[in-house]
Amino acid sequence: MALHLSLSLIFRIYALLLLLINVSFAKTLKRDVKALNEIKRLVGWRVVYSWVGDDPCGDKNLPPWSGVTCSTVGNYRVVVKLEVFSMSIVGKFPTAVTKLLDLTVLDLHNNKLTGPVPSEIGRLKRLKTLNLRWNKLQHALPPEIGGLKSLTYLCLSFNNFKGDIPKELANLHELQDLHLQENQFTGRIPAELGTLQKLRHLDVGSNQLVGSISDLLRIQGCFPALRNLFLNNNYFTGELPNKLANLTNLEMYLSFNKLTGAIPSALANIPRLTNLHLDHNLFSGSIPVAFYKHPNLKDMYIEGNAFKTDAKAIGTHKVLKLSDTDILV
Description:
The chain has 329 residues and is α/β, with parallel strands linked by helices. Helices cover 16% and strands 25% of the residues.
């Protein structure tokens, strides 16, 4: 019995040693080494200064490059995270990034990247987080971005993107957070986004979008998980539909549009409604009493409309700061 236990223990130690040896001698996949070194030649001095050596995953003498996270797969190491933000990187979006096929996180926010997001971005099938906010990226979003089927967080805010919001974003079935605010998007929000069962945060504020909220909600059972809806500072028209009350988790930020009509009393039935920003539109009539009895409603902004004189705001109106809407991963 003792001999059997000793042999079993020896076998386990041997297997562990083999695993450690395999990890220590694992080489970084040439594809990833080539791609990262290509990026290294293009980016600014701050990144180059911290990217020492030729192997982005490091070796026995050098640590991994700053902002690069690797993982061992079989006999190789692959790059799974590239987080190089606030480094004053200038120039076009580095297309070589799209050769890092095992990436799960790509975070290049707060740099000075320009030009378009390349269509090759659709190669990154394992990507879960894409954060490009606070750059100077331009042009229309490529429809291939809808191929990032693992994506849960997409932040493209504070850039200069133009054109329509791609309807292909509705293919991102795992998406939970979509930040498109502070760009120059035009046209209508694709109603197909309402089919995203896990989407909880949608921010398209401060663009040049048009259409009505009724158009956005035209798909039956849309936006079942949506919590935060930011439509502020656009050109939306029409009345607020009663169907908004079907979104039982909703908070609404509708300031500075061209919305009209009376406020439906049905919206006071949204149980988790804590913020309702209606200010600077063309609303009229009275505010239903039910809103003033809502147990959770803390802020209701109403100034800049044509409400009757008995309409009163709830809470103290404060100007939204970036920290209020810029949710970090």
